[in-house]
Structure formats: structure tokens, C-alpha cells
Amino acid sequence: MKHRHAHRNGNGKHGESFPHRPRKRFGQNFLHDQNVIERIIAAINPQADDHIVEIGPGQGALTRHLLPACGRLDTIELDRDLAAQLASSIPSTMPSSLQPANAFSIHQGDVLKFDFASLTDKPHSLRVVGNLPYNISTPVIFHLLNYHHLVKDMVFMLQLEVVQRLAAGVGDKSYGRLGLMTQYYCRVEHLFNVPSAAFTPRPKVNSALVKLTPHLVPPVTARDVSCLQNVIRTAFTQRRKTLKNSLKTLITETRLRELGLDVLQRPENLSLSDYVSISDAILPPL
Questions:
Q1: With CB atoms counted within 10 Å of each terminal CB, which end of the chain scores lower, N or C?
Q2: Alpha carbon of 81 to those of 15, 53, 59, 114, 203: distances in Å?
Q3: What is the rounded distance in angstroms from the CA atom of residue 89 to the CA atom of residue 46?
Q4: What is the Cα–Cα distance from 73 to 246, expressed in whole angstroms?
């Protein structure tokens, strides 16, 4: 069975004893710039009692910094060869004094099928990090939002365009479904940009580091999140249409006016709370 999904990460100076040809079908671009690696670790700021989950550790550029600094590290790697390399190389590079007992696990498989609830039942306890492949970054984020109650924060290297979509506000050209649903669950911080030269092979686009912190107290709460997702998806499927036209299959123009909304606005001009109002209005009265 061929996997189209991929994880990309790490090739530092330690990884060179295990040469690995990046696999295009796995979207592998290995991070090699030590200054960038150090900036990422500083942004994550791993602590001794942290339970960190690293998606796509690759050749371990971040893993080698994370393992001695945190209490428990779970890694999820799709590539069987890289998973085997990690299993043999990472523990052996750690001084025994820095290697917590039973604190390092490699889960070989597809992150999109991974059950993060299998790692913990403790609320807001997982710190998720990773250098995500461009081809699955959006599905990975939506998958993780299903586990927002278990996550303390997430720090990801993503395509710059994806980070701009995550952080976009009302009226921005990048504003849409990804940003709205992520901001429903999380505070979004665009930390810094990373040039393509920091990776091998060099990707055609620039990257950026983003931090997503699930809200302890949500800024706004929808009665039914799946209904909210459907409203937002429907609106932005036809983002050039006015509100009354893009949502006409879900809600009447009269009802939109009753909510105090300008029916001639386009989807990018509505706030998250506006979409929650629409979503709640579609549902049967309580």
C-alpha cells in the first residue's frame, strides 16, 4: 500500500552517519540549518515535566534537542526507514543521565490516523510540535483540533502561506475556513519566517513557525460545531458571492437581516462570532 502522506524534518550534524535520500512521495525536506533549529527549540522551550509529541521527526534534528529536555517524547513517523534509524540512533546519542526511563517512543504510521487520546487523558497536557509536510499540513491541523482538549500548545513549521491563512483576520485575502476554525479553538501566533535555504532539498516556497494555543476559555461558543463548520465551508466555497447567495441553501435572506448582518457582504467580511450567530440560528430553537 502506497502512502501519499508525508512527514519532513530534521537532518543535523548527527544525522549524517545515516544517509537518507529524501523521498519526494513522502514530501521530505530535511531541516539542516542549526541556527533555525535552535530558534525553533527556543520557541518550543521544552521543560522537564513536558509531554511532547513530535510529528515527522525525520532524521531527528529537533528530536535530539527535545528528548533530553522534556519528561516524555512520543514521535510519529510515516517512513519505516526513518523510524528504524531513529530507534537505533536517538537513544544511543543521549547520555544516560539525560535519558529518562521509558520516555521515548516512536509510533510508525500515518499521523492522520493517529489517536492522540491513546497518549493521555489529561486535559491540556500534550505539547505537539513538528515540521509538517506541505501536502498534509491542513488535514493534520484539522485532525489535531479534534483533540484540542488534550493539547496545551502546538508549534509547527509550515508553508508561509498556510501560516498566513491560520493568522488571517476579517477582510484579509488569506481569511477563510482554516483560519476561522483554528481560531475558534486556538490563539494563533505567527512567530518567524524561515527561508527555503534552511532545508535539503530546498523547497520552492518559504516556511514559517506558528504557535497554536487552545483556548482555556473560548472567545465564542457555537451550539453545534459541525453546523458551524458547514456554514463556514459553504460560505467560502463560493467566496466571491455575497452572503445572501453563498448561504441561500442554509438560511434565508430575511433571517440573516434579523441577525443584523449585511446580506451584501462577502464571506471574508464576517467575523467568527458572526458565523457562530448564523450557525446557531439554523439550528432548531432550544
A1: N
A2: 13, 20, 10, 19, 22
A3: 21
A4: 45
